[in-house]
Task: structure prediction
Amino acid sequence: MLEYDFNHMMPDPYARLPQTAQKRFSAGARETLFRQGAETTGLFIVLTGRVHLERVGPYGERFVIHRAEAGTSFADASIFSEHYHCDALVNEAGEFVRIDKAAVLTAFADVEFARAYGRQAALQIQAQRQLLEIVGIRSAEERVMAGLVAGLLDGQVVDFAALLQLSHEATYRALRKLVERGHVINPTRGVYSLNRGC
Result:
């Protein structure tokens, strides 16, 4: 059995927090870590696996607003909020850490912690802006192409579609057209990648 050094996977600044503020746990695919409206208890770190932060639209459709992967945090804004503003669903089973909210607030007294927190928040904002720019593209085909260029298709197409805020049918149609035009290759079922040779 492989043993992992989880400390090196903790993003800065959370590795600086005491072990007593960190609770490690495992979760399986499709498990819910928290629901929109639930009282906040802290933020989370993905050690292995993947989590999607999702909101539900007016007709019950689900939209992915953020993807958290190994070595990244999510629900950071919960530190300053009484309730979570979305659902957190495990997309890929893995190991996670919940960081106590009170410990983070206390750690802001440390200037280095506060600076590192600000740097990490800035990187997340940049990634979120990129996703918003892609989702703002009206043409489904162009949106799918932009998502591929940004490297957002690294799992199932249905998850890619949710991230792009498209139906999976529209996403598959766009992928098929991109394959027909030679911009995308589809070597096996469900696998798509950019055709770097065109």
User: Anything to note?
Assistant: Residues 111-135 form the longest helix (25 residues).
